[in-house]
Amino acid sequence: MKPAAIVYTSNTGHTEQYARMLGRRTGLPVFDMCESAKQLTRGTPVLYLGWLHASHVKGFQSAAKCFSVCAVCGVGLCDNGTMVDEVRKATLIPAETPLFILQGGIDRTKLKGLNMLLISMLTRGLASNKKRSEQEDRMLELLKKDASYVCEENLAEIIEWYEKTEQ
Ligand SMILES: Cc1cc2nc3c(=O)[nH]c(=O)nc-3n(C[C@H](O)[C@H](O)[C@H](O)COP(=O)(O)O)c2cc1C
């Protein structure tokens, strides 16, 4: 089913950026999860985007209770298009719901409390791991640089899915 709206949960802004880019590309209205319940009727078909926290797409379960989720995007530190099986399992996303992983970034100026602590621990843990995979190497570089990898090109797969999907 084609989505009628885009709903997102973002902590530091990368997921919101992707949601707004997708809104411009598709012409769909975009809502933050908190305001979506007031703006959309229950069961509306939506494309849901949430940031990744411990391989879990934040807010997916709440979105699935309110709306008919046609597809999910998880925005994290990992490379674009990777970690799909792990994230699907951790978030309990049904096998028939398409899942796309988009690379976001890190902005420590916006991280607070426990989230800041966990990111510092993750950075230290990766830095001290002598047997890092290539993906973990790239993740460590990103964590050290405090960079954003948000870009239009990362949306190619989801745009292709959207264009192919029928009403
Ligand atoms: C506490 C914490 C846990 C995270 N866990 C993951 C993870 O498991 N996998 C991943 O790829 N990124 C993880 N990230 C990185 C975020 O998903 C990434 O910074 C994302 O771009 C945040 O999106 P936002 O700016 O919309 O909040 C984590 C970040 C924090 C703060």
Key words describing this protein structure:
single chain; 167 residues; alpha/beta; Rossmann fold; 2 domains; six-stranded mixed beta sheet; 7 helices; 43% helix; binds flavin mononucleotide
β-strand amount: 15-25%
What average pLDDT do the residues reach? 95
CATH superfamily of the largest domain: Flavodoxin domain
The value of Rg in angstroms is: 16 Å
**Helical content, roughly?**
40-55%
Structural class: alpha/beta
Q: How far is the N terminus from the C terminus?
A: 5 Å
Q: Uncertain spans, ≥5 residues at pLDDT below 50?
A: none
Under the CATH scheme, the architecture of the largest domain is: 3-Layer(aba) Sandwich
**Unique ligands:** flavin mononucleotide
CATH topology of the largest domain: Rossmann fold
| Helix-strand pattern | EHEHEEHEHEHHH
In total, the number of domains comes to 2
Task: Write down how many β-strands occur, each being a DSSP E stretch of 2 or more residues.
Answer: 6
The shape is globular
Highest CATH level, the class of the largest domain: Alpha Beta
Largest sheet: 6 strands, mixed
> What is the count of DSSP helices, taking H or I runs of 4+ residues?
7
